[in-house]
Design a protein that fits this description.
By secondary structure, the chain is of the alpha/beta class. 41% of the residues are buried.
C-alpha cells in the first residue's frame, strides 16, 4: 500500500472511530455525561465544547439551571434565541433532580481540559446561586427564588440538599475535586454555609418518642417537622434520603459530638427498620417497568421502605389520592410501577459504619467517653468533654451527686459545648454549677413546642436546663436553646427557691427564661438574657440585678404571672435594655396572668422601647389588678409622660422599699436570710 493510501485509510479510521465514540456520548443521558471521568479525553473534543455552549445558554443570570433538560441535545437557532430571552428569568431555577449541581460538575470537568474563563465564570455564578438560596436556618428549598407550595420546604428529596453540601465540602476542604478554585472569600462563605447546613440536618433529625431516628424527605422550613410534598409523598421517615444524609455526616473530619450522636442514632434506626425475607420483582418491557411485585424470599438481601410512619416505622404506600395503604399491591399500576417504594441505599451506611467508628477511636483527637461512677470527692466534681474530669456529661454528674446533701456540691464544668438537656431534680439541692468561662462553657439544646408535641403544655418540657431543686447556683455559663424562631423554646427553667444565677448568658427566642414557683425567690446577677416574645416569664419573685436584657425582635420583654397577693414579682435593678437593629417596637411587658407585677428601677432603656411601655394583652381586668412601674430610669426608651395611664412612676419613698433584703430576704429562716449574697 502506497503512502497516499495509508493516509486515506488512517483518516477514514480516525473519522469513523471518532464518530462512533462521539455518537455514544450523544446517545447517553445528560446525567451520565456529567458523571464521566474527568480525565476522559472526550472533554477535549469539539463535541464537549458544543455541549458546554448549551450549558451556558441554559444557565439563567441568577446562576441556576432548570431541571429535566437533556442539555446535550442540538439546539436550533430559534431555540438558542429563546434561551437568550429567558436569561433574565428566574422561573424554574432549582437543585431538584440534579439540576445546577450536574451542570457545575460538567463545567469543572471541561474547564480542566479547555480552561476558558467563561466556564469558570458560569461555575462561580452557580456556586453563588447555591449560597444565596440557603435559608438562614441552614436548609435549602427545592426552588430558588421561592416557588409557592411545598417547594419552600427544606428538601432532602432525591438527595438535593446532600448534593449541595457535597459541593460546598469539596470547595471548603480544597480537595481539588473541582478544577475551578474560588477565592478565599468564597471558600470561607462555603465553609459557613456547610456548617449551617449540617446544623440544619442535626435539628431536623426526627425524635420518635424522645429517641433520635432519621429524616423525612422534606421538613417545614420554620418548625423543622416532617411535612408532605406531592399527594403521595406524605410526612414520614425516609429509608432512602436518610441514607445519603448519614453518609455525608460520616464524611466529616473530626465530627462533633452532635454529629456522632446523629450517626449512631440513625444506624440504630436503620438496623431496627430493615426488611428481610422480601424481594422486589420487576417485569420490564421495552425498557419500561410494567409490573412490580413483592415476593417472599428467605435469601433476599435487606431492603428499606421509602416511607415509614413517624410513630411506629410501619411502611406505607400511597396513590395520587394521598390515602395511605400498607401493601404495595393495594395501589394502582401507575404509582406502583412508576415510583421507587423500596431502597437498598442504607446498606452502604451499615457497611461503612464499623470502619467509621474504629477510625474515631484511633484518631488522636478523639477520646472515648470516660465516666467515673464514684468521683474522688462527691462534693467537688469536674465535668470535661475531653475525659479529663470525673464525667463528660453534666447530667451524669448530677445523677451521681448526693441527694439532699448536708453541704454544697460544686460541679465545675470545663470549656466546651455540651449538647444535652440537663435536669436538676428536687432531691439534688445545694448544687453549684460553675463554668470555666461564660463564653466558652456552653450548654445547648434545641427542643421546642412543636417538636415536643405533647399537648398544650409542651412549652414546659422544652428547657435546655430545668432547675427543680432549691438552693441552686449557676455561674460562668452560656445556657441556650438553639431551636430558632419556631415558637416556645425555653433555655432555662427555674422552678425552685433561693436560686442564684450570676455572670451567665441565657439565650433563646420565644420564652427563653421561665422563672416560677409560688412564693419562690430567685436572683439573676450580671447576666445577659436575650429572646423574642415574652422571653422572661413566670410567677416567681425574681430580681434581675445589673443584667443586659436584649430583645431580638419586636415583642415583649416580660410576661409575668405573679400570684395574687405576692408583694413583688419581677424587679429589674440597674439593668440595660438593648436590642437588635430590626427590633424597634418592644414593650416592657404584658400580663400572662392578671396580677402580674413588674418594676424597672435605675435602668437604661434603648430607643426600641415603645413609648407606651406596657400592654394589657387584651385583658381589661389586668389594668386594675396588675402592677407595672418604673423609677429613675434613663435613655431614649424611658418616656414616663407617654406611658399607659394604668402604669406607675414610683416616688422616691416607694422606690426605697425595693431592696434585695426586702424582696429576697427569708424572714422565716435565719440561716437562709442572705442566700442571695452568695454566688457560689
Amino acid at each position: 500500500m502506497n503512502t497516499y493510501c495509508k493516509v486515506i485509510v488512517l483518516l477514514l479510521f480516525s473519522f469513523t472511530t471518532g464518530f462512533r465514540v462521539h455518537a455514544q456520548v450523544l446517545d447517553k443521558s445528560w446525567n451520565s455525561i456529567t458523571e464521566m471521568d474527568s480525565d476522559d479525553q472526550w472533554f477535549t473534543s469539539a463535541e464537549a465544547k458544543a455541549f458546554a455552549e448549551n450549558v451556558l445558554l441554559y444557565q439563567r443570570n441568577i446562576g441556576g439551571w432548570p431541571k429535566n433538560i437533556q442539555i446535550q441535545k442540538t439546539l436550533s437557532d430559534a431555540q438558542k434565541k429563546e434561551l437568550l430571552v429567558l436569561k433574565n428569568s428566574t422561573e424554574g431555577c432549582t437543585t431538584d433532580n440534579n439540576a445546577t449541581s450536574q451542570e457545575m460538575l460538567f463545567l469543572s470537568k471541561i474547564y480542566k481540559h479547555q480552561p476558558d474563563e467563561k466556564y469558570k465564570k458560569a461555575f462561580l455564578s452557580g456556586l453563588d446561586y447555591l449560597l444565596k438560596a440557603q435559608y438562614d436556618n441552614g436548609g435549602w428549598p427545592q426552588f430558588y427564588p421561592l416557588k409557592k407550595g411545598y417547594y419552600t420546604h427544606i428538601t432532602y428529596n432525591d438527595d438535593s440538599m446532600v448534593r449541595i453540601l457535597d459541593i460546598l465540602k469539596e470547595i471548603k476542604d480544597k480537595t481539588g475535586f473541582y478544577s475551578i478554585q474560588p477565592s478565599e472569600e468564597i471558600v470561607e462563605k462555603c465553609k459557613i454555609a456547610f456548617d449551617k447546613g449540617i446544623d440544619c440536618i442535626l435539628k431536623t433529625q426526627y425524635k420518635q418518642n424522645g429517641v433520635l431516628t432519621a429524616w423525612c424527605a422534606q421538613h417545614d422550613e420554620n418548625t423543622f417537622l416532617p411535612v408532605k410534598a406531592r399527594a403521595y409523598e406524605l410526612p414520614s421517615l425516609s429509608g432512602k434520603e436518610s441514607a445519603q444524609i448519614v453518609l455525608l455526616l460520616m464524611s466529616i473530619e473530626n465530627p462533633s459530638k452532635e454529629v456522632i450522636t446523629a450517626v449512631d442514632a440513625a444506624v440504630t434506626w436503620f438496623e431496627k427498620v430493615k426488611i428481610t425475607g422480601l424481594r422486589e420483582d420487576r417485569i420490564i418491557k421495552n425498557g419500561k417497568i410494567v409490573e412490580k411485585k413483592m415476593i417472599p424470599d428467605a435469601n433476599a438481601l435487606p431492603i428499606w421502605a421509602r416511607f415509614m410512619e413517624l410513630d411506629d416505622n410501619k411502611p406505607f404506600f400511597s396513590d395520587r389520592d394521598g390515602v395511605k395503604k400498607y401493601s404495595l399491591a393495594e395501589i394502582g399500576d401507575e404509582r406502583r410501577n412508576g415510583y421507587a417504594w423500596y431502597t437498598n441505599e442504607p446498606k452502604e451506611v451499615l457497611k461503612k459504619y464499623d470502619k467509621w467508628k474504629k477510625k474515631l477511636l484511633t484518631e488522636s483527637n478523639f477520646i472515648p467517653k470516660k465516666v467515673t461512677k464514684s468521683p474522688k470527692d462527691e462534693y467537688n466534681i469536674v465535668v470535661a468533654l475531653d475525659g479529663s474530669g470525673d464525667y463528660t456529661s453534666i447530667q451524669d454528674a448530677i445523677y451521681n451527686s448526693p441527694a439532699f446533701p448536708y453541704k454544697r456540691v460544686f460541679i465545675t464544668v470545663k470549656n466546651g459545648t455540651y449538647h444535652e438537656k440537663v435536669r436538676i431534680p428536687e432531691w439534688n439541692t445545694k448544687i453549684s454549677l460553675i463554668g470555666e468561662s461564660k463564653e466558652k462553657t456552653i450548654i445547648s439544646y434545641d427542643d421546642y413546642f412543636g417538636k415536643i408535641n405533647l399537648g398544650r403544655n409542651s412549652t414546659f418540657l422544652t428547657p435546655t436546663i430545668s432547675v427543680e431543686a432549691n438552693d441552686f447556683r449557676a455561674s460562668n455559663l452560656t445556657i441556650q436553646n438553639t431551636a430558632g424562631p419556631v415558637g416556645q423554646a425555653v433555655a432555662l427553667s427555674v422552678v425552685a427557691n433561693r436560686v442564684v444565677v450570676s455572670n451567665c448568658i441565657i439565650s433563646g427566642n420565644q420564652d427563653t427564661l421561665y422563672t416560677s414557683g409560688e412564693g419562690f425567690k430567685q436572683y439573676f446577677k450580671d447576666c445577659f438574657i436575650e429572646g423574642t416574645v415574652d422571653f422572661i416569664f413566670g410567677n416567681a419573685t425574681a430580681v434581675f440585678d445589673n443584667c443586659t436584657i436584649h430583645a431580638k425582635s419586636d415583642s415583649y420583654l416580660t410576661a409575668a404571672s405573679t400570684t395574687e397577693g405576692a408583694k413583688y414579682g419581677f424587679v429589674f435593678m440597674n439593668c440595660k435594655l438593648t436590642a437588635d437593629e430590626k427590633a424597634t417596637e418592644v414593650y416592657l411587658g404584658r400580663p400572662w396572668r392578671i396580677h402580674a407585677k413588674t418594676v424597672f428601677l435605675n435602668c437604661e432603656m434603648g430607643n426600641h422601647i415603645r413609648k407606651e411601655g406596657w400592654n394589657n394583652w387584651l385583658k381589661a381586668d389586668a389594668e386594675k389588678t396588675s402592677f407595672y412601674a418604673e423609677y429613675n430610669c434613663s435613655g431614649p426608651g424611658f418616656q414616663p409622660q407617654n406611658r399607659v395611664a394604668w402604669s406607675h412612676q414610683l416616688k422616691k419613698s416607694e422606690a426605697k422599699k425595693y431592696t434585695l433584703e426586702n424582696i429576697l430576704g427569708d424572714a422565716n429562716s435565719k440561716p437562709n436570710s442572705n442566700w442571695y449574697s452568695n454566688f457560689k
